[in-house]
Specification:
Elements: H1 2-9, E1 16-19, H2 24-30, E2 37-42, H3 57-70, E3 78-85, H4 95-112, E4 116-119, H5 136-157, E5 164-167, H6 189-205, H7 209-212, E6 215-220, E7 225-226, E8 231-232, H8 240-246, E9 252-255, H9 263-271, E10 274-279, H10 281-301, H11 310-320, H12 333-342, H13 355-368, H14 375-381, H15 383-390, H16 398-417
Parallel strand pairs: 1-2, 1-10, 2-3, 3-4, 4-5, 5-6, 6-9, 9-10
Antiparallel strand pairs: 7-8
Helix pairs in contact: 2-16, 3-4, 4-5, 5-6, 9-16, 10-13, 10-16, 11-13, 14-15
Length: about 425
């Protein structure tokens, strides 16, 4: 990560893709390359209580290392990052308990081997004044407390523990916006200046001067966003002042919610010093698209009684456990049914690990066996893969097609950041 920052400061258009997903197919596809791989988990995805993945930080590291071993990916090329580490999960609790749990979480992340730590204490807690915005200085003091915990944990581990920090409070809603937005407010330079000043002061009060030297990136809002039914494109013109400001600092920017941006937009983000591009839902959306297309082919080839009925099983699971989409999707029953399947927010991603959904997916894959798919149906349901299969550049198998569907999205990021062998 240090070399990435140095390269940006030399004027090079260098960046890194941050894979914000725990999905095994996504992670295995990302391990196809020969370069450094940054994988991140959020505070509500992975924490000391399990998060929605059911994994603690230590369990997540074991899981990722297991996938790396299966795919012959050297673990020394892995960087693991903790995203939005702070009291978000416990924001309805009083500050004392919410911050204690946050510190425990940060400690667990560092002990597990995460080295890129984004501290985020920007949200109001249960006993904060609900009538006004959270004081910037209070948010900075809380963030500094989390860094202090990380530093003390790192010191206990020994010199092999090398932490890098990301700070910033103005971020899009994790996982995409909850409502349709026609425009997104870009972070103002004066707000970043204030955040840096109060955060630096808070670090120094806690004796964290050395940790401040290892802050590498700032989270800001570059005007990109996506939601259920919209994508807000990157506009370099409105970010001009923001891009010029970071050039006189030792930092780069980290861009959240870059999913579904065009290849040109991703390249322009890198040019404008958004050197860390986070992506997640767009990758699982691509996987979902491919699985649904395979289910359509299955309907054409497999007798009714032997089909996986995966699309139906998935929707049944989502209706049985609506907690992951009920605050995101709105409208009539028909509109919500459509969103559950096809929304750009891809809340489907929360359900792939459920046993009945996994069972249906396994049946779907098993139903195709090792036989190649009929070319006419490949052309019908996978037109962008058809030519690659015909020309021998892509295998005609379920595994190859699912992996390639994810790689199509991932290549846009890799090519914007820095070409890496293995993704050609």
């Amino acid at each position: 990560m240090d070399e990435l920052v140095r390269a940006q400061k030399r004027g090079e258009r260098r960046g890194i893709t941050s894979i914000c997903s725990a999905h095994p197919w996504v992670l295995k596809a990302a391990m196809r390359g020969d370069g450094t791989l940054l994988i991140e988990s959020t505070c509500n995805q992975v924490n000391q209580f399990g998060g929605y993945t059911g994994m603690t930080p230590d369990a997540f590291v074991t899981y990722v290392h297991g996938l790396a071993a299966e795919n012959s990916f050297p673990v020394e090329r892995l960087i693991l990052g903790g995203d939005h580490l702070g009291p978000y999960v416990w924001k309805n609790e009083p500050a004392v308990s919410a911050m204690q749990k946050s510190e425990d979480m940060v400690r667990a992340y560092v002990q597990a081997g995460y080295t890129k730590i984004h501290v985020d204490a920007s949200m109001k807690l249960g006993d904060d004044d609900p009538s006004c915005l959270l004081d910037v200085e209070l948010a900075a003091r809380r963030a500094a407390c989390l860094v202090k915990t990380a530093e003390s944990t790192c010191a206990d581990i020994g010199p092999e523990c090398k932490l890098r920090y990301v700070i910033g409070t103005e971020v899009p809603t994790p996982g995409g916006a909850t409502v349709h937005e026609d425009a997104v407010s870009v972070t103002k330079v004066e707000d970043i200046q204030q955040m840096l000043e109060v955060t630096r002061t808070s670090f120094f009060i806690e004796g964290l001067e050395a940790a401040w030297e290892r802050v590498i990136a700032l989270v800001v809002q570059p005007g990109v966003e996506f939601g259920d039914d919209f994508i807000q494109n990157y506009n370099p013109e409105v970010v001009y002042d923001l891009a010029r400001f970071v050039e006189i600092t030792p930092f780069v920017y980290e861009a959240h919610s870059t999913d579904y941006q065009t290849s040109d937009n991703l390249r322009n983000l890198i040019r404008d010093h958004f050197a860390i591009l986070k992506v997640g839902p767009a990758l699982t959306f691509a996987f979902r698209e491919a699985v649904f297309a395979l289910a359509m082919i299955e309907n054409e080839l497999v007798p009714l009684a032997q089909r996986s009925h995966l699309i139906e099983r998935l929707d049944e699971a989502m209706q049985r456990k609506p907690v992951y989409w009920m605050n995101r999707y709105h409208g009539t029953e028909r509109e919500m049914a459509l969103a559950r399947k096809y929304s750009l927010s891809d809340r489907v991603r929360y359900y792939w690990a459920l046993p009945d959904v996994q069972a249906a997916l396994n049946i779907l894959i098993k139903n195709f066996g090792k036989k190649p798919l009929p070319l006419s149906l490949v052309s019908q349901y996978f037109p962008r893969h058809y030519t690659s299969i015909r020309e021998g550049r892509l295998g005609n198998s379920v595994k190859a097609i699912l992996t390639e569907s994810i790689l199509v999205v991932l290549r846009g990021y890799i090519q914007a950041c820095e070409p890496i062998p293995g993704f050609d």
